[in-house]
Each structure stands twice: as structure tokens, then as C-alpha cells.
Amino acid sequence: MNSKPSRLATLWLRLPLLVRTVVGGLAVFFALQIGWNGLMITNLMTSPNIPWSMPLALVYLWVVFQFFNGRWGSRSTAEARRNSMRARRLSRQEWGPAAVAVGLVVIFIIAATLFTYRLIEIPADEYELPDMPWWTLYATLLMVAIVAGVSEEAGFRGYMQGPLEKRYGPVVAIALSSFMFWLAHLNHASGFARFVPLMIMGTVLALLTRSSRSIVPAIIAHATADATIFICGTLELGPRGIWYPEQLSETGLDTLFWVDLVVVAVTSLVLFYLFRHLRTMTAGAILSETSTGD
């Protein structure tokens, strides 16, 4: 005998889908972020010489992710949570084009970020961090990238984008989830000025998720791009610094500008083809899984 939903659940379901997806996506994002934030701050303030927060954060991230992915918790909501997360495992055949797409997305994000940062003056984000050895610094930067990749893809491209795609179509879903992705970065001094690069990043990750029908490739691409930008920015590697390169207004249309423009253009064209191919391939796999399950 099926039990009646609680009053809270009934009220929740009465809210418009748009409200539920935005609130739900943000809740998943914050839930996956908050554990690492607390552990990182405690670690850096008490014992910065030992990056003990990293393994604990990985465990926290895995446990919370699995809950939102429907692995445990209430059985009555497990399937809904799993469908909302969209963390479908890709087959070996799907991973061929998906892996190429992930690599090209990483290159595109880095190139597009550098390109837009040269056109738009981005305020510097200032952080008051305690003195720490290099191993703690880079372990922290790596963990920040991993947490960002998992939490933001689960919240914005999973719980938020998926239901919106089904109700309003891909254009509205991708635009709104990317806009909310930008809003989530307004806690940084550079957040407002990074509207264009973050919208571009959100859009390409959303297209990767839509084409692969899974957030897994987007998580890998997002975390890899962030880690590359963070570490290269800290080491001041890359063309004139990835984080804060020289403005185009100061250098003119130099060689770096044209190289960057070509990289963005070529990766965009190849990704357009790959996304269409991957979308078709994954559609057949999902139909096969559905018929097998029946």
C-alpha cells in the first residue's frame, strides 16, 4: 500500500517546475560544496603543513554525490534523484568520441578564457591565505577544481538543466543553467566581470552533457580545465599568464590573439560535429537499455 506524500512534499510539487529546478540545483551545488569549504578552512587555519582535508573531502564528496544520485536514502525518491543527477555511465564505444570531446572542451575553455580575459579587464580576486608549503597549495588547488567540477555539474547541468530540457527545450535549459552558473560566482570580486567567459564555459559544458546524456564527461572536463587554469595561473605559466594576461588594448592584435582565435574557432567546429555524433550514438544506447529493461 502506497503511503501518501507528506505535506512538505505536496507543497514542493505544487511549485512551478522552473522554481523547483533552480532551487533544487542550487541545493545540490551548495551541499556538495559546503563540506570541502569547511574542511579546507579548518585545515589551512590549524595545520597547513599537512593537507589532511583532501582525502576527507573526497570521501564527503563521494557520499553526498551518491545520495543525490539515488544510491541510498529513501527508496521512494531514489529513481527521481538518479534521473535528476544524470550521472549515466557511458559504454566503451561511447567513451571514444566522448573522450575526444572532453579533451577539446578543456582546450576550448582555456583558450576562450584567455581570449575573453584579454578583451575584458577582470578584477583580481584577493585571498588572505596563511603561509603553506607548495604541496598543500597544489593539493588545495587540485581539490578546489575537483569539487567545482562535481558540485557545479551535478547542480547546474544535472538537477537544473535536465528537467528544464524536458519541459522547455535545450535553448532555455542551457541559457538558464549557464546564467545560474554565473550567478554562483558572484561571491568573487571578479564574478560580475566574468559574465561572458562563465556563460561560454557553462554553455559548452551544457552541450557536452546534452550530447553525452551524462554529466560524467562534463565533470572531467570542468575539473581538468579548472585545475590547469589554477595551477598554471599560480605558477605564472602559459601565454603571459592565464589568469590575468595583458590586455589587447595594450598589445594590439598580436600573434597570441590570432593563435587563440584560431584555437577557439577550430575547436568550436570540431565540437559541433562531435556533439551531434555523440548525441546520435547515445540515443541508440539509451533505446537499447530501455528495451532490455522491458
Care to describe what's here?
- It is a single chain.
- Helices cover 76% and strands 0% of the residues.
- The protein is mainly alpha-helical.
- It has one domain (16-287).
- Residues 289-294 have low confidence and may be disordered.
User: What's the tally of helices?
Assistant: 11
SS content category? mainly alpha
Number of strands: 0
Low-confidence stretches: 289-294
Beta-sheet strand percentage?
A: under 5%
Helix content: over 70%
Main sheet makeup: none
User: SSE string, helix = H, strand = E?
Assistant: HHHHHHHHHHH
CA gyration radius, whole angstroms: 20 Å
Global shape: globular
Cα end-to-end separation: 24 Å
- In total, the number of domains comes to 1
**What's the mean pLDDT score?**
88
Explain briefly what this protein structure is.
This protein is an all-alpha fold. The protein has one domain (16-287).
What features would you highlight for this structure?
single chain, 294 residues, mainly alpha, 11 helices, 76% helix, globular
What order do the helices and strands come in, and which of them pair?
Blueprint: H1 7-14, H2 17-46, H3 53-68, H4 75-85, H5 92-119, H6 134-168, H7 170-183, H8 195-212, H9 216-235, H10 248-251, H11 255-293
Helix pairs in contact: 2-3, 2-6, 3-6, 4-6, 5-8, 5-9, 5-11, 6-7, 6-8, 6-9, 7-8, 8-9, 8-11
